[in-house]
Structure formats: C-alpha cells, structure tokens
Specification:
- The chain contains six helices and ten strands.
- It is α+β, with helices and mostly antiparallel strands.
- It has two domains: 114 residues, Rossmann fold (3-Layer(aba) Sandwich), CATH 3.40.50.300; 119 residues, Barwin-like endoglucanases (Beta Barrel).
- Strands 5-9-6-8-7-10 form a six-stranded mixed β-barrel. It has a four-stranded antiparallel β-sheet with strand order 2-1-3-4, covered by helices on one side.
- Strand 7 and strand 8 form a beta hairpin.
- The longest helix is centred in the middle third of the chain and has 13 residues.
Length: 284
C-alpha cells in the first residue's frame, strides 16, 4: 500500500452561499479521498453543486467548512501565495470556457501558468515540449465515430406533434443562480424569468409579451410568462437558468431541472439534454 498522502482528502466539506433565510448549501457535508492514479467522475443534474465542489477541491474557493487537504497540505493553513503555488505546480483545470487570453499567442497562453511555478527550467522550452506532445495525440473513439456515421447517414428524427417546440431549459441571461440567492425583489425586470418565444410562434398562439402560457414537457408542467423576442427562432423557446429556487415563502420563476427528464440524455456521457427538451405550449 502506498505511503504517499492522498491527492485529495475531504472530510465533511460544506459550502454555503448567502446567510440567514437566504442561505443555500451548494455542497453539503462531502467526504472523499482520491489517491494517486485514480480516475474519479463527479456527475449529477445541473445545479447540484458539481462545479462548486470542483472549485473547492482545486483550491479556487476557500469559503468552506470542514477539512480539506490537497497533496497532504491543509488548505486552510496555506497563505494565498502558497495556495497559488500549489495550484500552479500540481493542479490543472479544464474549464467549460477555455479562458484563453486573446492578446497572447498559443505559446504564451501555455506559458502563463508557469508564473506561479518555482521550476527553474526554461518556461518556453517546457511549453514547446507540451505543445509538441499535444500535437502528437490522436483521439479515436470507435463508439462515437459509429454514432456520428449513423447520424450523417440518416434523416432527422420526425417532429413529435404532441411536443412541437424545442425548449432550451436553462438559457444564460444577465443573471445567474448565485445572484438569485438574494432577495429577488432587487430585480425590477423579468422577475419571474419569462419564456422567450419568437414573434411568429407568439402570433400563432395568439399571445403577446406579458401573457401566460402552460408549458408542458414529458417531465412536468409549469405556468410561464411570455416574452416575445426576435432573438428566438421559430419552434424554439427558452427559460433562464437559476430560477425556481425558494427565498422565504417565495419561489420565483421555473426550475428548469423540473422540466428535464433524465431519460433524455447524451448516450456517451449521460448529460441531460437541457438545451433540447421537447415541449408543448397552451393558452391558459
């Protein structure tokens, strides 16, 4: 058995956003150990706390309770400089958005993390070695290639007339779940998170901005307020991300997860199709 300390050792780690009645536990009493050489997958529905947990385990977020050690070092006892050095030397992040610096070249972007490293070798030499290795990788996933070939050789699935619309359940707008942990009264516009719909579809349904519709998916039903928008394509509607959470006795907006079925998901990675939910709209 290896005598090396665990790469990650978390005990009862909890992350709370907000205070008082608005307090929400994004990560609740999580304990886990990750050893060298292990591959760990963290999965769950949108909004369950995956990204928050990864930010904690990666040393990006220190506002937690419980105990967390990275490479045998207690995160709570590290200074900001020490934690930055640990991240720079031992931890790598691949974000959903790449966060590349547009004013830097590819080589300079690769070199950027070395600003926090104490390795005395030539940064540029190391960066060029890394780029060369990456350039030699050949990624071939037979199952994925077979599925791609099948899709290219077949006609699109026929539209289900009982659910003629495609709902994007969780569109990013000018607010997020984190901002809505506060009293929703601060928002004086679109407080309920309107369903956006294109003008031609709104006209066909006989509704205008401010009207109410019943939105139905295979998972559930919700009453929504309409916002007619030129940004939407015919047959497509959208609801914002981050609504449907309770604040005191209020629960403004619709929770997208309650309209999304786990049965409809990517066959390879299991991610629910939040951006392609079959839906039906009816006048109330």
């Amino acid at each position: 058995m290896s005598t090396e300390p665990a790469i990650v050792l978390a005990k009862s780690v909890t992350r709370v956003f907000g205070t008082g009645e608005a307090a929400r536990r994004a990560v609740d009493d999580v304990s886990l150990s990750v050893q060298k050489g292990e591959v760990v997958l963290i999965f769950g529905p949108s909004g369950c706390g995956k990204s928050t947990l990864l930010a904690l385990l990666g040393g990006l977020d220190r506002a937690y309770s419980g105990s967390l050690e990275l490479f045998g070092r207690d995160v709570s006892r590290l200074s900001d400089t020490e934690l930055s050095q640990l991240r720079g030397e031992r931890i790598g992040f691949v974000f959903q958005a790449f966060h590349l610096l547009g004013h830097l070249s590819v080589l300079e972007n690769v070199m950027a993390p070395a600003l926090f490293s104490r390795d005395e070798r030539s940064v540029e030499t190391r960066a060029r070695e890394v780029l060369e290795r990456v350039g030699q990788i050949q990624l071939e996933l037979p199952d994925l290639l077979e599925e791609l070939e099948r899709c290219l050789g077949s006609a699109p699935d026929a539209t289900d007339l009982s659910f003629p619309f495609v709902l994007s359940a969780g569109e990013r707008r000018s607010f997020t779940a984190n901002t809505l942990l506060r009293d929703p009264a601060w928002r004086n516009k679109d407080a309920a998170g309107a369903l956006r719909i294109c003008p031609s579809d709104a006209s066909a349904l006989g509704v205008a901005t401010g009207a109410e519709l019943r939105l139905t998916t295979r998972r559930g039903t919700a009453l929504v307020t309409v916002e007619v928008s030129d940004t939407m394509q015919p047959g497509h509607v959208s609801l914002p991300n981050g609504l449907g959470t309770s604040y005191g006795d209020e629960r403004p907006g619709v929770a997208p997860n309650e309209l999304t079925s786990l049965d409809e998901r990517d066959p390879f990675v299991g991610t629910p199709w939040h951006k392609h939910v079959r839906a039906r709209l009816e006048r109330v």
